[in-house]
Amino acid sequence: MKQVTRKRLMTALALMAAGAGGFMLWTPWQPQSRPPDVADALVVLGGTSSDRSTLAAKLYRENHAKRIIVTGDRSELMLALIESGIPEAALVHEPSATNTVENALLVQPLLDKLGARRVILVTSWYHAGRALRIFRRLMPDREFSTAYIPENESADPNGKSMLRREKFAILYTTLIRGVPCLW
Length: 183
Prior knowledge:
Elements: H1 2-25, E1 41-45, H2 51-61, E2 68-71, H3 75-83, E3 91-94, H4 100-114, E4 118-122, H5 128-138, E5 143-147, H6 159-175
Parallel strand pairs: 1-2, 1-4, 2-3, 4-5
């Protein structure tokens, strides 16, 4: 009896190791960075990349949206947008979010107040897939798309290591936070 239990345990451990190895080789799905012609708002997700404020300012100037919501305690993003010529009246700051799920939950009332139905999420290339899935799951009545600077054009020196971190964040968000974002 003990041999059978040990064999099952070893088989289970081998399967878990193979699954973990496969997970590390897997590359998370990344949506195309094709914002709609016009959206009601841009939502700039807080993060360490200056790419986000640069891209948000560009999309605003190209009239993709008339309002920009910056979420997360990244006052540098707000400052960068103001310094790039974005009028303060076009900006809304949500300073409390500390992760992507909180970004979505805390931005939702702001989008309601603006009457925003079509939203462009501005984030980093490695974060776009998970962010898009989270926002769509938590606000299915809205239309979301993503905009990001592609990996080969990004000024973010930490992109590759952040992609590895993103894999664990997908698992954490799905298993611990209860917001499925694997698909």
